[in-house]
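Input/output pair, single chain:
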Amino acid sequence: MNALQPAVVADGLGRVFGTKTAVEDLTLSVEPGEVFGILGPRGAGKTTALRMLAGILPATRGRATIAGLDVADPARSRQIRALTGFLPEGSGQDPDMTVPELLHYFTRLQRVLGGEHVMRIDAILTALRIWDSQPNLVTGHPTEMAQRLAMARALAHNPSIVFLDEPTAHLTREATETVYELITDLRSQGRTVILTTRLFTEAERLCDRVAVMNTQLLSVSSPRHLRGTLPVGV
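Output:
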């Protein structure tokens, strides 16, 4: 990815479900190596926006690019999937698989070959503090462990751009700190992270810049400049 080229760009993105407008005229640019937050209350369109930016959900109007590639171009789909990792909110897991089997399966889907990805999976399991339980079947994990596994799955193929939807939802304080440390480490590696959150304290802790939205984009700024200026309900 060209260092001078934005990692992710949205130009007038919008999404309508029936008669309901979930996101309207979203325009923003995320730089390489940036941790960028999308902040807003429940129902503000954060998840819809994240899915459109990642190319998972088609936009009703507007355009999004990842590393200059149009996310709506089917010819670029495989290239975009290799560049990106996505953590959905409330992610489920595959039954009857051990943790390493699950992660190896998803790296194979991304065409990651050879032994290098094995070492990377070990590092991810260690960073997320789930290595001790790795022989266990995925179905045996409680909600918190499932969330950690979903994040490991999103990172297993070594993406340069990571989309995280409510990455600390349903986690204990200790597990939340583990995720915070991992996101900070991703930044130090030069990865781009785009995350959604309802918590300003979380955005303030993690993000270089924050987009505040409630269906429409209200503002984009650093957490320091946003403090004390947020609308009621955010």
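The first helix runs from residue 46 to 54. The two ends are 34 Å apart (CA to CA).
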